[in-house]
Amino acid sequence: MPRVYASSVIDAPAAKVWDKVRDFNALPRWHPRIRESRIENGEPSDKVGCVRDFRLQNGDRLREKLLGLSDYDMFCTYSILESPMPLTNYMATLRLTPISDGDRTFIEWSAEFDCAAEAAADLVDGIGNNVFQAGFDALKRQMAG
Amino acid sequence: MVRIVESTILDAPVEAVWAVLRDFNGHDQWHPAVADSTIERGSPSDRIGCVRRFHLADGSELREQLLTLSDADMAFSYCLMETPVPLLNYVAHVRLAPVTDGDRTFWHWQCRFDTPAGRETELRDMVANTIYRAGFDAVREHMGLPVSRPGAR
To answer: What is the CATH number of the domain that holds A11?
Structure first.
């Protein structure tokens, strides 16, 4: 089972970063790769089990289900229900931890999934760079202001 | 119960930091508070249950037992068995994680303990400053890393 892990440091307090990322429907407001998002069936975006239906800038459509959300531990876990990527059983977690030294944020994003062996390297690379690291870079730019 | 959580970023790969921290008997090599340290009964320092007996600069003796050590998670935990200061039921957890963006290390160090009423603040500050924060800077110095923290405000 391929695994993707990326982590970074954001120069802002964890509570501020969490305010931005905890909303499961907010990807278009901080992730440059996401154009639009909505929560299915008019459910609140912090209801565990809700589904976000969103589109990338290139028009690709994904549906993801919120599996876990904790304001106390500052993490969010979700799975992919539908995507153009050749993978199954995708589950990811985005987690924040305060860095007491300097009041900064340690951000970790990890995922596991199943796929054909020959597709694994490209998927790990693409998700790690285009989704996770691109998200970190955007957050760093936005929180620097 | 008093709880302390301290964390920092070291400008070194996580494997290099783990190589320093995983030796339960190695703290006298880098921590300024520790004068000397031995593992009791000649046990290896990565054997779960081993006890390190060490002295501070003022000669006071402490004994701590290794409760957990995981190379997979780059984490360990330990408890205080004997101490001259009233840190009771003291259990600490150390955990490292890679910062893949820049090949650095996130170091998380936390503990909890009981202490007589009225001494909580004094002992919290003592452990947080002279053990944990001083330990962060001591490992930086031991590894030849810059002690000034970029991004610290």
So the answer is: 3.30.530.20
Judge whether A97 and A14 are in contact, CB under 8 Å. yes
Q: What domains does chain B contain, in order, with CATH numbers?
A: 2-142 (3.30.530.20)
Among B3, B6, B7, the residue to mutate for chain A (most A Cβ within 10 A): B7
Regions in chain A scoring below 70 on pLDDT: 145
Enclosing domain of residue A71 = 3-144
Number of domains within chain A: 1
Q: Is the pLDDT at B45 greater than 70, yes or no?
A: yes
What local confidence, expressed as pLDDT, does residue B153 receive?
Answer: 40
ipTM of the predicted structure?
Answer: 0.89
Among A125, A123, A97, A114, CA closest to A10: A97
Closest chain B residue to the Cα of A129, Cα to Cα = B101
Of B131, B109, B101, B99, residue with least CA distance to B16? B99
Question: CA–CA separation, A2 vs A27, rounded Å?
Answer: 24
What is the rounded average pLDDT of the residues B51-58?
A: 95
d(CA B71, CA A68): 27
- Our CA-based measurement puts residue B130 at a distance from the nearest CA of chain A, in whole angstroms, of 14
Whether the pLDDT of residue B150 is over 60: the answer is no
The pLDDT score that the predictor gives to residue B147 is: 78
Is the whole-model pTM more than 0.80? yes
Check A104 against B101: CB less than 8 A apart.
no
